[in-house]
Design brief:
The protein is of the alpha/beta class. A nine-stranded mixed sheet has the order 1-2-9-3-8-7-4-6-5, with helices on one face.
Length: 605
Amino acid sequence: MSTYINSSSNSSSTYINIPVETTYLSDAISELPKDCLFDKGLVGCGGTTIAIRSKENYVIVVSFVSLIENKISQHDNILGVYEGVSNKKIIEYSKKNDVKKYMVTYNSLPRLMELINPKEYRLLVDEYHILFTQYSFRKEAASSVLNNYKSFKDYCFMTATVLEQEFILKELKDIPLVIAVWQKSKEVVVESVKCDDVMKVASNTIQKYLVNRISGNAYFFVNSIEIMKRLIERNKLTEENTRVIYSKNNKKQMIIKNSDVSSESKKINFLTSTVFEGADIYDEEGKIYIISDSGRSHTLIDISTSFKQIGGRIRNSKYSSRIVHLYKSTRYSNAVTYEEYKEECEKNIKATNELLEKYNNADPILKRGIVKLSCDNYVTKIDNILTYDSNQEKIDLYNFKITRCLYSIKIALKDEYISNSYKVNEHVDKSKDKVPAEVRGCESFKEAVKYIKESGLYVMEATCSGYRYSPDCDEHVKENVADYLKKYPYLEEAIEKIGYDEIEKCNYNITNIKRKTINKLDISTTSKVAKHLKVKGLVVGDFISQEKVVTLIKDAYESAGSNRNVKSTDINIFYNTKKSEKCLNGIRTTGYTILSLKVIFDEAL
């Protein structure tokens, strides 16, 4: 069995040595460690199986229903708890089984806790890094776990892909870390292919598989059903040679029907984030390809988390020591480094917390004079007390690092491979071709809106002025809608503020929808201008000439219904900037580089 060794450099960390001959974690330890963050070290080493086979009662928390279904297909002692599973069924299971194993989604954890005594159960939060990576669009679901884990007999937050310390959620940052150190580890080589046209290179690869110029079965992991559909149509793929796996209940019609990981493997296999985390795939001939298209920021893959998860998804592949990563560099410049952005974020946190302290300690009459915040995704209000959500700040840092740093310059991506123990072979593929317009926008914004409307996720209530969450919505549909809201983060507010009819009247034009939504918000003109500037595409790292700054701000005020006279320094009302110069069209031009967004308190109108 393994031995525990306390770290000499960090008293809050403990290491578990896993012997060389060990294949599965259960060969080294009989129970999972308690009250800790547990880095199990390897994907597919059977960490969850230890909890399932334990003689103790367990509640196992996972992110998706599909993961529950995957484990239930392998173990007959589990009861899955999610939307649609009745309280009666939970109670009956409890009475019939001496040792109970509940596998539950984030959203359903509070309901399960009302039907059991949590102090009689150990808690395993599986793939806990997902609590962070999906926090911004599943905040309520994540809170169901973060607010309740201490109610159990003990707890273990387990993953093979531990986040960097700066990205640990505030609720978990003080929990001790236990690390499984495998004495025998396999070297994985990443074939890193920088592409001028990712879709062209992927298509060329698919064609080679179809004519057997490449042996084995190709598994393309993507973060977008759009990419999947485009490649299917582009290469005229069929059900005879291709399998697709994506979110259940997605009504998007494709030539090839949706499948699951237990179905028969095909020569070409496409998988979205539904199976990135936790699902087991078996195919000795499986070869892994990861696609990151910089033109779609939500498809970019984080090397430290999803990369490792994907790398371990095919459990028995004889090609598991090789991953091909097809990517295209982002358009973003390096005018603002990660360190500069992080420094500005820390200044923002300090300044905003000082403002919030003044607000929370203010006279109630004065409080009524401050009605809104321009950056309210960072600030929560409970019982008239405002608090800064530092987790959301961490999410923005994380996203900045992925979209602005890792994929913006080749050396950064290479360093990230190496820091995560991958050997790298670099390639460049300049293949290009033009994609027809009818193929380019396969899964449109319009279709997303119609899907959400038909799902009944947001319904009009007679007692409310807007749309609210429908509690009887199917769990699969919730997951699918969450994917849409991640892709279109402004859509939820648009549905609430202007409704489906107005969205349709805008002819589903995203810019017009954003503008109309902003002008419906109960905030000051200054905050509306800040939001209109964001719609115009002002983002961190951009250099803007003084002349263009004036034009942009003037247009933003006019969009907000104001004719205020503006000057270039007004940019500092809305953003933290640095005065800089840049050569534009051969002319040395003075302007501003955007460092970060400012938080603006709205005074009563």
